[in-house]
Specification:
L-fuculose-1-phosphate Aldolase, 7-stranded mixed sheet, single chain
Length: about 260
């Protein structure tokens, strides 16, 4: 799931860029990678990015590496076409599905962090009639909508289900829409967005937790008493503030192990 950049191909796309990175954001991105790996949302695959607060037309993401292994030295800067912008990053291996991030940032100025994962309990909800819906208050953001991206509608039935081109990234961002926090990807996983990196990590984790609990409720049987849209939206507003608490814990644990 990676590819080497071509210095000749990348050069025309490069813009002038400050080579210095915000050390706190870099540290947060390392913590986010390690946290979601340890929480079982990411494994050797998946990736997390954060929009550059100094330039909204750039984002930070690690080079192509297993998320749990990410360090500050692995963090790169890409433009919203998902190309290298710093000469010192030339030749480093990039995630092949990085277009997920760049195209979502283009389409959603409210989004400042993106998580793409193969969240294990979420995947069954991408291939069955069961709709992922909020039943846990921590996952109220699911009430914003959980659209399903079907790649066959955009690229036929012979793909590897991956988002490998800018056009597929645009199609995915269009499916996410202007409000939803999560877009499911059939047979693949999901992409989760947030206004901040800590909130995107929170949402990625609780998307997985809600899926586990919904699966358990389905197994128990009987009708499920899901949250109303009003409850979900109220809970989402509360969790935008409350997500700082688990983030502080997760970040501390992740960085202590570096």
């Amino acid at each position: 799931m990676n590819v080497k950049t071509s210095p000749r191909a990348a050069a025309p796309r490069r813009r002038a860029a400050d080579s210095r990175l915000d050390p706190d954001l870099v540290e947060d991105l390392v913590a986010a990678n390690r946290t979601l790996a340890r929480l079982g949302v990411l494994d050797a695959f998946g990736h997390i990015s954060a929009r550059d607060p100094r330039d909204p037309h750039r984002y930070l993401i690690s080079r192509s590496i297993a998320p749990e292994s990410a360090t500050a030295a692995d963090i790169l800067v890409l433009d919203l076409d998902s190309q290298i912008v710093r000469p010192q990053d030339e030749g480093k291996l990039l995630y092949r599905e990085r277009f997920i991030h760049g195209e979502i940032y283009k389409a959603r100025p409210d989004v400042n962090a993106v998580v793409h994962s193969h969240s294990p309990t979420v995947v069954p909800f991408t291939v069955t009639r069961a709709k992922l819906r909020p039943l846990l208050h921590n996952a109220g953001f699911l009430g914003l909508g959980v659209p399903l991206f079907e790649i066959r509608k955009h690229a036929g039935d012979g793909t590897d289900l991956m988002i490998l081109t800018p056009n597929l990234g645009k199609d995915l961002a269009r499916k996410l829409g202007k409000e939803a926090a999560v877009v499911l990807m059939r047979g693949h996983g999901d992409s989760v967005v947030g206004p901040t990196l800590p909130n995107a990590v929170f949402r990625a984790y609780y998307t997985e937790i809600n899926a586990r609990q919904q699966l358990a409720a389905i197994t128990i049987g009987g009708p499920i008493n899901f949250m109303t849209r009003a409850e979900a939206l109220t809970s989402n507003d509360a969790m935008l503030r409350a997500s700082a608490r688990p983030w502080a814990l997760w970040r501390k644990r992740a960085l202590a192990a570096c």
